[in-house]
Design a protein that fits this description.
The chain is mostly helical. The chain is built from seven helices and no strands. Helix 2 runs antiparallel to helix 4, helix 3 packs antiparallel against helix 4 and helix 5 packs antiparallel against helix 6. The chain is elongated. About 8% of the residues have low confidence.
Length: 181
Amino acid sequence: MAQLTTLLFGIQQVINFGTTRKLGKNAPHRNFHCQHWPHPNDHLPHTTMNHQPGKTLALIGAWLQIGPVFGLLGTVYGMVCAFQDIEASGMGNPEALANNISIAITTTAMGLIMGLIGLIFLAIAFFHSSYRAPWFFKFLIVFAIFWLIHFPIGTIIGVLLLVYIISKKAEFHSQPPEFRT
């Protein structure tokens, strides 16, 4: 039904645009025996989850947290290639070894940069935009637990983040029904 409404709305817009171009701005709009074809989103309130501030930042920030994992995979790949070069040619080819180590370091740096940008997006979504959704609460709890295993500074950050998030738990679950998802 939503696709049909979208199609009808699009057809009405094309017809109205053509009539306006040919006959001018004062042209009557022909609706073909229809009072009004509703816009596909007319039934939704204007403050739905799609318009909630911070959702996009939270989603992008969450996905960018995968960056350090890709950086680690690149590091492992670069080091495996370096050890294969050492095995094949011995220590006589330092340029190949340096190239593989450069790949390992570059992928690590890129992964960490992605993770840092994601962390900034998460902080903006949480603190500035005050984005609160049940999925975001669960994500932040898991994120704080991962911080706990990075001793010593990560442990301190993880504990502080866990305490803060848990103290704000009511805010995440007190959203109106149109904000939940």
